[in-house]
Amino acid sequence: MSKKRKGKVYLVGAGPGDPGLITVRGKYLLERAQVVVYDYLASVKLLKHVPQGAELIYAGKKGGVKHTHTQEEINQMLVDWAETGKMVVRLKGGDPFIFGRGGEEIEFLSDSGVDFEVVPGVTSATAAATYAGIPITHREHTASVAFLTGHEDPTKENSNIDWSKLATGAGTLVVYMGIKNLPIIVNNLMSNGRDPKTPVAVVRWASTPEQRSVVGTLETITDIVREADIKPPALIIVGDVVNLRSKIDWFEKRPLFGKRIVVTRTREQASELMAGLEENGGNCIEFSTIKIEPVESYEVFDEELERLEEYHWILFTSLNGVKYFFERLYAKGLDARNMKGPGIAAVGKATADLLLEYGVRADLIPTTFTGEGLAESLLDQGVEGRKVLIPRAEKAREILPETLRGAGAQVTVAPVYKNVAPDGKREQLREELESGKVDMVTFTSSSTVRNFLSMVDAESDADLKRLMHEVTIAAIGPITAKTVTDNGLTVDIQPESYTISEMVHEIVDYYKPDGML
Ligand code: SAH
Questions:
Q1: Which atom of ligand 1 is closest in space to residue 17's alpha carbon?
Q2: How far is the CA of 25 from the centre of ligand 1 (A)?
Q3: In this predicted structure, what is the pLDDT of residue 290?
Q4: Residue 350, Cβ neighbours under 10 Å: how many?
Q5: Tell me, what's the pLDDT at 398?
Q6: Which of 176, 182, 204, 231 to mutate to test the pocket of ligand 1 (most atoms within 8 A of CB)?
């Protein structure tokens, strides 16, 4: 009889938000996980450590929003996965045993006879204090600190929190989940003897590029938070140590803090640029290269290949169009001799040069290297009743086929390749630009410019200009800069020597307040 091995559940603290703040042990376990059940507060960036093919389950739980799974469902899910023999990581924001219901999950595992381990994490209270420049204890100011929840129902009669003791009993108080009840919390503290002038800080999304903090006193903080529109997740830090922030604040003072910077990179490039920008506080959004892939079905194209000689024109509108056209031609046992009949047109010189490498000379190259230019040159030749084949990307601008059809040509568009942007990224980039949240876009080569433009997929030059109106552009060197200006955009930052580290320096200088060196 084969013995069925049970799996094990690792309850791992993800840290407060910055993915660099997970423990070495936590990362080690993520790298070996077969199932990861993660929370709203656990940074999704940590999921990059998880091996491909592992099961990723979002357990949700965002204050005020409908819970994705109930606590009972989560408990049961952990047991069920462990019983299938899997190595399960239960990833929770901050420390699992600090207001994380980690205790309840472990009790359930224990009752169900499932093996477990708990890995602590950097709790958001200490992270928020550190990243807001507030030493949570200090010899001169406080010798004690208390963590409490502000989530308790304020009308509850027998509160678990003894405000009369806590209000003055601990030097520093850190309140989790307290934003909604902030007015009640500060009242409880004041009415139980805490000085209304006691300084208070509220820190949202601590340790992440979205961190925001405001400072006031017990008397004023409620209004300040309302005016600043600070929403959860945020922590309330109460105590004299808050005053030290004016000297110690370091995180929000970094030169690129709060700047949203789009980094377009090709697959070959290391993330040196991102690391350099993030080191200075930049909030980088990475868009890696678009991949070019063959289309799923060559049905349309193959049929046309059979009757190439019937065509009057074959139009090549991109380098990839040429490449994939010939790959398919060869795969079908044909070659350039089968293209004897039709005239060959290329959208630009580079495309014509590539055609020549395949043994075919272009008969027509327009003076303006665009779809419109090509259409115009063909119209000059007269296209009425002419059969035109356009092997091209699955998704491309329709201006060329439409113009030709309008002039009476019989146009067949045959997709031979497709651009695949990383999942959802294309829409995300577009949204980022539309919302006006992007401060800067960086380009480290001409191909990053082209990739960016094709991902933005602007309808026209005017549309592109509109989207990029408020965006600063950094280009690594003159060739890259030229590609930017050729596309009608303006370069704002260009380092003297073409290196990533110089580029980072220039970007930092650009954002430094005047006079600071
Ligand atoms: N186990 C977690 C706390 C979970 S309770 C920990 O140890 O940090 C959820 C509350 O934690 C939020 O309502 C908020 O008060 C706080 N919190 C978690 N992450 C935070 C962050 N990055 N910035 C500010 N507050 C955070």
A1: 22
A2: 21
A3: 62
A4: 13
A5: 87
A6: 176
Exposure string over 293-305, b if 16+ CB within 10 A, otherwise e: eebeebeebeebb
Residue 292 one-letter amino acid: I
Burial of 502 (0-12, 13-18, 19+ CB in 10 A): middle
For the chain, list residues with pLDDT below 50: 1, 64, 268
Closest alpha carbon to 101 in 229, 217, 163, 13: 13
- 443 alpha carbon – ligand 1 mean position (Å): 36
Residues in the chain: 517
- Tell me how far apart the terminal alpha carbons of the chain are, to the nearest angstrom: 74
What strands lie across the sheet with 35-39, from one edge to the other? Answer: 55-60, 35-39, 87-92, 8-13, 115-119
- What would the CATH number be for the domain defined by 260-290+423-511? 3.40.50.10090
Check for a shared fold between 126-251 and 260-290+423-511.
no
Cα 16 to ligand 1 centre (Å): 7
CB burial of residue 244 (10 Å; 0-12, 13-18, 19+): middle
pLDDT for the residue 507 = 96
pLDDT score, position 3 = 64
Q: Kindly report the protein residue whose alpha carbon is nearest to atom 11 of ligand 1.
A: 176
* Helix, strand, coil distribution of the chain in percent, nearest 5: 40, 20, 40
User: What's the CATH fold of domain 126-251?
Assistant: 3.30.950
Q: Map out the domains of the chain as residue ranges.
A: 8-122, 126-251, 260-290+423-511, 294-420
Question: Under a CB-based contact definition with an 8 Å cutoff, are residues 444 and 268 in contact?
Answer: no
Q: For residues 477 and 498, is the Cβ–Cβ distance under 8 A?
A: yes
Which atom of ligand 1 has the smallest separation from the CA of 100? 1
Q: Which CATH code for domain 8-122?
A: 3.40.1010.10
DSSP string, 357-406: HTT---SB--SS-SHHHHHHHHHHH--TT-EEEEEEESS--SHHHHHHHH
What is the number of other CB atoms lying within 10 angstroms of the CB of residue 143?
A: 11
Give pLDDT, residue 293. Answer: 85
Q: Which residues partner with 88 through β-bridges? A: 9, 35
Q: Looking at residue 268, what is its pLDDT?
A: 47
Residues noted as catalytic: 39, 61, 177
Pocket of ligand 1 (CB under 6 A): 16-17, 41, 63, 92-95, 98-100, 123-124, 128, 176-177, 203-207, 232-235
CATH classification for the domain delimited by 294-420, as one of 3.40.1440.10, 3.20.20.70, 3.40.50.10090, 1.10.940.10 = 3.40.50.10090
Q: Is 316 within 8 Å of 391 (Cβ atoms)? A: yes
CA 192–ligand 1 middle distance (angstroms): 26
Angle between helices 399-406 and 371-381 (to 10 degrees): 20
Pocket test for ligand 1, best of 22, 23, 41 (most atoms within 8 A of CB): 41
